[in-house]
Design a protein that fits this description.
alpha+beta; 5-stranded antiparallel β-sheet
Length: 126
């Protein structure tokens, strides 16, 4: 079956506060991978900085990207907020981990290796 590839970016609300740590990013990678499996999709790569994450995802054409994004953001926010990480408690208020918006672009013109290389170059927090 043909798969579509899209690069998705989620950002933290509150004027780019430094919230995501290496431990949180590791947990997010696992959460996003599990959600992708439920949608017959695959997380191709994952990385981020203290205020945003990049997720290139391969998914079947029958999956609406908006539904996939809703599940990725909703489930990850729920799980991470329940863990009570100090950086999140200190810098975020309310129940949302992610900004209500997201960025998604088709990766039809770029190879997966080029996308991976770009994402691996992010300034991952310690």
């Amino acid at each position: 079956m043909n798969q579509l590839i899209t690069r998705i970016v989620f950002k933290i609300p509150c004027m780019r506060r430094k919230v995501l740590t290496a431990a949180i990013l590791g947990e997010l990678r696992n959460i996003f991978s599990l959600v992708c499996v439920r949608f017959e999709s695959k997380l191709l790569e994952f990385d981020g900085e203290a205020d945003h994450v990049h997720l290139p995802v391969s998914y079947p054409p029958k999956v609406a990207i908006s539904k996939l994004v809703q599940a990725l953001k909703g489930y990850s926010s729920l799980i991470i907020r329940k863990k009570n990480y100090p950086s999140i408690q200190k810098n975020l208020w309310g129940k949302a981990l992610w900004s209500p918006s997201y960025f998604a672009c088709s990766c039809g013109g770029a190879s997966v290796s080029i996308i991976r290389q770009y994402i691996e170059q992010q300034n991952t927090p310690d």
